[in-house]
Amino acid sequence: MKYSFIVPVYNRPDEVDELLRSLTSQTVKNFEVVVVEDGSSVPCKDVCSGYADMLDIHYYNKPNSGPGQSRNYGAERAKGEYLIVLDSDVVVPDGYLEAVDDELSREPADAFGGPDRAHESFTDTQKAISYSMTSFFTTGGIRGGKKKLDKFYPRSYNMGIRRDVYMKLGGFSKMRFGEDIDFSIRIFKAGCRCRLFPQAWVWHKRRTDFRKFFRQVFNSGIARINLYKKYPESLKLVHLLPMVFTVGVCLLVLTSAVGRVLMEYDDIHRWYWLCAGPWLPIILYCLLIFIDSSVANRSLKVGWLSIPAAFVQLFGYGCGFLSAWWKRCVKGKDEFHAFDKTFYK
């Protein structure tokens, strides 16, 4: 068998149903599906059983330990030459596995990954969140876009690796957040061939509202510092941009507030631009996001929602990054994360 899909899941039977349904339509059929239930209170066993006649599917249930360890659990039981890790909240297009097969036939790879997109059925908020996580103007294009400020690191929502390489490297670490980047770094450090497969994309639902999205990206900011402590060379300029954005916007707003106070107690005209001027770069950035997202999504509403999505993404990541930097790099504390139960449960 050439391919094994590994899907960790926690309390998402409906989303697993969508994913499995999309896998039944693959034009390449040489694969199995390994679903690992991570101690869910709402299991998807019945959903998986419903696909027993359509897919070579294997269902396992284990105590909750996080997605990384659940992927390792599935990898140990998988039979494919290549292991393809997917998040349970993705849906794959009909030609996904054909695109992977074509790329591997054209040029071998030890590990690979693909980008993600928003499906037409997603809510406007989900589309806005998807935009904020994939746009060059918010993430620097490091999540699989053609324009990027750093090399491509496969992410666990759409990641493939040779089974022998996976086992040699020990799979995912016990990091609760950032474990996929940790694995990608180890893949590169081992000298493995790692490539982006642009046509092997998936539809990725991500978070369903801005509150959950903030918690996700806040933990991602923390994970970046945790990764830096393990691999100092992994921290690049692009990873600092959300922190710079967060601090910069706060300073601009503070400057405007000072100008407003001076206008109140001194000559209004003298301090007007100190009050109004700092808002100009913020407004221009909002306009850029609105126009780019509206065009990309062909929707003014999604374009409008992409503005708060971008700020949540950048501020959440930036605040998590600063919090972890202060606690780990300044105060010398051990690895930590936040919103653990809320994020996973």
TrEMBL record:
It comes from the Bacteria. The chain crosses the membrane at residues 237-259, 271-291, 303-326. Residues 4-169 form the Glycosyltransferase 2-like domain. InterPro entries: Glyco_trans_2-like (IPR001173), Glycosyltransf_2 (IPR050834), Nucleotide-diphossugar_trans (IPR029044). Pfam families: Glycos_transf_2. Gene3D superfamilies: Spore Coat Polysaccharide Biosynthesis Protein SpsA, Chain A. Keywords: Membrane, Transmembrane, Transmembrane helix. This is Glycosyltransferase.
